[in-house]
Amino acid sequence: MKFRVPAGIFVLFFCFCAASAQQTENKLAAADQRRIIGILLNEKFERSSEKTIYISTANIPKEIQKNFQPLKNKTIQFVSPQTAAKSGLCAYEFGEFQTIDKFVSVTFGSCADGLAFDFIKDGDDWKAVSSIVIREMLY
Question: What CATH number has the domain bearing residue 50?
Fold first, then answer.
């Protein structure tokens, strides 16, 4: 019985350290997040007639909001998830960035539709390697 308590503490300590290390490894630098966000916004809105693009502040750190990459001939308006819900605004939203091996996955979409994107770093830049529909509204 005496050996189980220290062994249990060791196991809990090891699991806690491993979880902390995994979270650190999954942390993507703000510059990389900003670049991936820029790629997705350019792809989505380059040919869009929308002049103002509403983006939810969920999952976008303040650091990235401050130095947000502008879009040509578009105005980016950040809204909190609460404000969007209260006003009935269908804001675009990014999911959490997840790093798995050499790939980065992130979801992006509005209340009507969304995609999950996988990116890989190619030299100094990022390129999309796949996308999957995660929700689609049928009218």
Answer: 3.10.450
